[in-house]
Write a structure and sequence with these properties.
Layout (H helix, E strand, L loop, with lengths): L17 H38 L3 E2 L6 E2 L4 E3 L5 E3 H10 L10
The structure holds zinc ion.
Length: 103
Amino acid sequence: MLTSARQLPAVSNGRTQPSDFKEEVAAVRQYRNKLEADKNYQAAMALAMEQARAAGHLIECGCCFDEFPFERMVQCDQGDLFCESCLKRCVSRGDGKRSGQPF
Ligand SMILES: [Zn+2]
């Protein structure tokens, strides 16, 4: 185990500087953590879908009428349930800005 920071040789040929390298390592770690989180989220959602389907607890989206487990639904202030895709589409289009309703 190192007891002090390693001294890196000076770089003068345009290659990565030590500070750039540290930033690059941090960015790669952050990217890998996001990939792992995305993978875990997808696995959790697949399991939730499988369990809800087996139990007969799928919920119909109020917009696209597809069925999803509760974990994939969002609720508007009127109590209606919508899937994540419909919510994202609604937000990207700016739907509901004037009426206060999501759809
Ligand atoms: Zn939907």
